[in-house]
């Protein structure tokens, strides 16, 4: 009888030792084949402790564009599934957050009539809300990739918070290179300029990096948006731009429904 392959995509969390979900752990243990795309050695250690035979999806630093690297990952995953393997593919953070390869692998496997499913994981966003003590829903929160934010202008409301990811990768479709100071600085300077169109220059944003390792605190560094151009950033830096005070309650709308807080901020 033919063995039918299937695909489960799971997230390793950011701090894998404590953020790998029970669901992900079970999927890793039960799979015929485990493939992972995690570079942080702590995550690799946790995955390999569960499955010594887990194989790393390659992430070459040879000038290939990221798009091509992700396509190669997708092909590697899909080939295994089509050969009848029950594959668990592990991606860092939440596998569906700013990650094209997992979504595409699921589309292709499902398109071949096989079972393909994604399990949620703990993303950098979850860590950010916890580490910065902010509630994304209270005043609203826009989440965007930094290059996309800059190159596809949108109407921004500074009374809604903003999270920008990949702020060190602005204008770079290749793999991150920490030595590429000129591009990084030009990207951050443009970002600063555009943010200053919506927020006051002295508005305090926070450079954020969730900790990967037990016992290491997150990076939470305040920076005025006008000074972003000279900020020191890494491959995993994200930016939190808090909202300005909320708009006043529309008294007519509130009164129509007998809202008790008419005239105050909505609770
Ligand atoms: C390709 S995305 C992957 C996100 C990942 N799938 C997740 O769920 O967190 C990479 C971007 O996520 C953000 N990121 C990843 N790790 C982070 C960390 N430890 N702290 C803050 N932001 C992080 C950064 O903006 C980084 O450029």
From TrEMBL:
<protein>
    <submittedName>
        <fullName>Uroporphyrin-III C-methyltransferase</fullName>
    </submittedName>
</protein>
<dbReference type="InterPro" id="IPR000878">
    <property type="entry name" value="4pyrrol_Mease"/>
</dbReference>
<feature type="domain" description="Tetrapyrrole methylase">
    <location>
        <begin position="6"/>
        <end position="207"/>
    </location>
</feature>
<dbReference type="Pfam" id="PF00590">
    <property type="entry name" value="TP_methylase"/>
</dbReference>
<dbReference type="InterPro" id="IPR035996">
    <property type="entry name" value="4pyrrol_Methylase_sf"/>
</dbReference>
<dbReference type="GO" id="GO:0008168">
    <property type="term" value="F:methyltransferase activity"/>
</dbReference>
<keyword id="KW-0808">Transferase</keyword>
<dbReference type="GO" id="GO:0032259">
    <property type="term" value="P:methylation"/>
</dbReference>
<keyword id="KW-0489">Methyltransferase</keyword>
<dbReference type="InterPro" id="IPR014777">
    <property type="entry name" value="4pyrrole_Mease_sub1"/>
</dbReference>
């Amino acid at each position: 009888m033919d063995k039918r392959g299937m695909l489960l995509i799971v997230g390793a969390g950011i701090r894998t030792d404590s953020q790998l979900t029970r669901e992900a752990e079970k999927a890793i243990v039960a799979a015929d084949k485990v493939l992972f795309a995690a570079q942080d050695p702590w995550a690799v250690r946790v995955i390999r402790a569960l499955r010594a035979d887990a194989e790393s999806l390659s992430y070459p630093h040879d000038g290939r564009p990221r798009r091509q690297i992700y396509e190669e990952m997708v092909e590697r995953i899909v080939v295994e599934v089509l050969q009848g393997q029950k594959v668990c593919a592990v991606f860092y953070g939440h596998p569906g957050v700013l990650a094209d390869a997992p979504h595409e692998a699921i589309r292709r496997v499902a398109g071949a009539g096989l079972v393909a499913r994604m399990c949620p994981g703990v993303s950098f966003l979850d860590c950010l809300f916890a580490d910065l003590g902010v509630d994304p829903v209270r005043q609203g929160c826009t989440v965007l990739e930094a290059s996309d934010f800059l190159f596809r202008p949108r109407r921004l409301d500074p009374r809604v918070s903003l999270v920008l990811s990949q702020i060190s990768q602005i204008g770079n479709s290749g793999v991150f290179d920490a030595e590429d100071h000129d591009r990084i600085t030009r990207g951050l300077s443009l970002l600063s300029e555009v943010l200053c169109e919506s927020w006051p220059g002295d508005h305090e944003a926070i450079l954020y990096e969730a900790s990967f390792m037990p016992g290491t605190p997150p990076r939470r560094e305040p920076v005025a948006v006008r000074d972003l151009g000279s900020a020191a950033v890494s491959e995993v830096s994200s930016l939190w731009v808090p909202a300005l005070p909320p708009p006043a309650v529309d008294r007519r709308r509130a009164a129509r429904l007998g809202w008790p807080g008419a005239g105050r901020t909505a609770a």
